[in-house]
Structures are given as C-alpha cells and as structure tokens.
Amino acid sequence: MNNNKPPATSKSFPPEFVPAGHESTCGEIDESQPVEMYDGTLGVTKDFVAAHQSSVAQIQWNNDLATKYQKPGNVVNVRWCSGNMISEDLYLSAGHCFDSVNEIFGWQVPKVNGTNDPIQPKEIAKNMHINFNYQVDSHGALRHDQQSFAIVELLEHRLGDLDYAIVKVDGKPGKIFGITPIAVADALIKDMLCIIGHPLGKPKVVEAGPCSDFSDTKIGYNTLDTQGGNSGSGILGKDGTIVGVHTQGGCNSIGFNSGEKISSLIQASPIVKKITNGKSP
What we know:
Thrombin, subunit H
C-alpha cells in the first residue's frame, strides 16, 4: 500500500487538482451524478452503478516528487486520470495519462536529474498511485474509507498506436474492490454505455448515454458528458463489461466524445487478449 496517500480534501476542490487533458460536455450542462447519490435517470439503473463502481479508481501523482527530482515540475499530488481494475493487480487506463509531454495543457512532469529531459512513461507510472473510494456517500459527505495503492510497473503503453495503458498495482486491490470484466466484442450502435470516473479530479461520478459512432479504432458517444480526469475510464456496456477505454472529448468539435473500442484493444494488447480468452494475465 502506498504511503503517498492524498491529504484530506474538502468538498471545494483546489484548482491545482485539475487533471491532464481536455474533454467536453455534450450539451449545455454536465449531467453526471455522484455514484452513491445516483437517482437512476441517466439510462442505467441504480443497481447497475452500485454493482460496477467499486473497481473504478483515480490516478494521482505522489507527493514526494520534490525529494526525488531537482526539477519536479508542477504535478506534485495532482489528481490525474481514471481507470478500472481488470485483475487482482492490473489496472487499465488511457495511455496519455503516462505520457512525458503534457505542455499543451500546461503540465510539466519531473525532469531527469541534471537535464531538461522529462522522465519517461515507465518512470512516470512509478511516481503515481491509485485511489479507491474517493467519492461522497449517499448523504453527500466525503468517504473516510479511502485507500491508496502504489503503481509498481507500467506493463503496456500505447501498443498498436492505441491510447491505452495497463499498469501493475501493489497490494492486489482487485481482491478488495472487485474486477471489471472485459467484453469479447464491441458494443452496438444505440447500446447504452456508462462511464464511471473522476472528471476534473473530483469524487467519483457516473454518466451514461448510447453508443453513437464507430470510426477506425474509436467508439463514440454523442450525449455522454466527460471532462478532463475521465480519461482512462472504462466504457461499460449494457452488461457491465468494458467495451472501450475513454480517451478524449469531441462534442465541441467532431460531435461526440470517444475512446478506444475493445476489439482494437484485444488485437493490440497481449494482456487484454489473454483475459478475453479466459487465461490468467
């Protein structure tokens, strides 16, 4: 278990806890709801959300970067991305959450000591942990039973030019918080999709909407709101299996938000392929 546990956080979230990436709402307002206060109106049932939210965790940078690097950048303790446990110790997220260059969004990762070169993805991953139960309860109070686990290794990163990553996590949190199963085939157009994650670094929320588009390696959804920090969230199909990994917003440009579809991940990722073939990763 990671000792770089995030500090107590109030319900007014500090502006520096804004994660990588820029995504978009699909409409005038963000309709997402806290997972434990969900009212069942977004297109999936309350039971669906209750059954599938536990294995979703938030990525956060560790708080000790200044003790390790002469130039620690500006990401110390920043709440970053989302993702799902897919085995007892494997966590699936977006590839860009571990990229070295985020200057387009104003983020600077630590530099290799004695240089101006950013640390590389494998080292970035080891400077992060994942947080479970970072969410409010049914009364709107921040839960006190949060747990954090160290990321120990980046196992797969952007294979096949896909925006995904799989990391190994210390402590086997999948035994505690559950595992999200992976679909063996893509969703269909108009199938209801659900994304559970941490937009803008906030406590865990849920959003849902139908599958609207497929393009190359992408699955699209034109009414499902996302924000920066949702990156890496598993896109859940109607049976609760992962049918993709959310990677980007586009409702304000191409007309839909999108992620990498599961058939592309099965083709590119040895780990995902093993899991979907019923083998231990």
